[in-house]
Specification:
With 282 residues, this protein is an alpha+beta fold. The chain contains 9 helices and 8 strands.
């Protein structure tokens, strides 16, 4: 790896890795080469970028301390807010550089994704993106089959959170890292894609390889809960005056009010006993 890339990667890892994230460098050209022009990143091909993903540890190391801060917006998912906060800290660690951050959920006005996260993860060597085309003589006929990324250490127990672009930093000599093909056989790829497309709620596709760490039961309960119900699961409610319909523009920065903590299950989300005291909040 080029010294400049290694130095920048280390600074970003110092910022993110203690909170359960991983970072992988890639060239914009590698990403653009796999996609039609409508999805291209509008930067020179050698531009340096980093793929950011979260591991199971992010839940305890980043999300819980963030929730303790209570700096939450009512109209945005708590995990997305937490990830946005930590990705924003990269700018603080590299103030001398121009940095663009694209979160995995961001879209253009026409609803086209700003980044195809799984493609970015594949070209960065972070996780192998298994698609229908990777199964010879597939058995699905006219059925639509979505692809899925698998991490060599975490299987499906991870999430791609976004990319960090560094306009003006070009690394034409950076060599690509191939993602680990940890599901090499046709039969296992069929099992994986069918589990992901038809049985994703049972979590089984995530164990297509033996992971070194899985989501905790607490974490699984959170992600299994419909987004609109996650605030209540976390023990938060809106102030009384906000229960009436209000234009979203009127309260995008509302701080949530914690409910009385009567349930031990709810207390566990915010308790310092389960959130490492050494992890600083925002």
């Amino acid at each position: 790896m080029e010294p400049q890339v290694a130095e920048l990667k280390q600074k970003i890892e110092d910022t993110l890795c203690p909170f359960g994230f991983e970072v992988y460098p890639f060239q914009v050209a590698w990403y653009n080469a796999l996609l039609p022009p409508a999805f291209h990143l509008p930067l020179p091909g050698p531009t340096l970028a980093f793929l950011v993903l979260s591991t199971p540890a992010m839940f305890d190391r980043a999300l819980k301390p963030f929730l303790q801060s209570c700096h939450l917006r009512t109209l945005m998912d708590p995990v997305d807010q937490c990830v946005a906060y930590h990705l924003g800290r990269i700018r603080q660690s590299l103030p001398e550089l121009q940095i663009e951050v694209i979160a995995d959920y961001e879209v253009h006005p026409n609803r086209r994704p700003k980044i195809l996260a799984q493609t970015a993860a594949h070209v960065a060597g972070a996780a192998y993106y298994y698609q229908r085309k990777d199964v010879e003589a597939d058995p699905w006929g006219t059925q639509h089959i979505s692809g899925v990324c698998i991490h060599p250490q975490y299987g499906g127990w991870f999430a791609i959170r976004g990319v960090v672009l560094l306009p003006g930093i070009e690394v034409p000599d950076l060599l690509p890292t191939k993602p680990t093909d940890c599901v090499p056989t046709r039969a296992d790829r069929i099992t994986l894609l069918e589990a992901f497309n038809f049985h994703w709620r049972d979590w089984s596709y995530r164990d297509v390889v033996t992971p070194q760490e899985r989501y905790s039961e607490e974490q699984k309960a959170y992600f299994s809960t419909p987004p609109a119900q996650r605030w209540a699961l976390l023990g938060f409610t809106l102030p009384a005056e906000e229960h009436s319909p209000v234009s979203p523009e009127l309260h995008p920065l509302t701080t949530l009010i914690p409910k009385p903590q009567t349930s031990s299950r709810v207390r566990g989300w915010l308790s310092p006993r389960v959130s490492p005291a050494a992890s600083p909040g925002p």
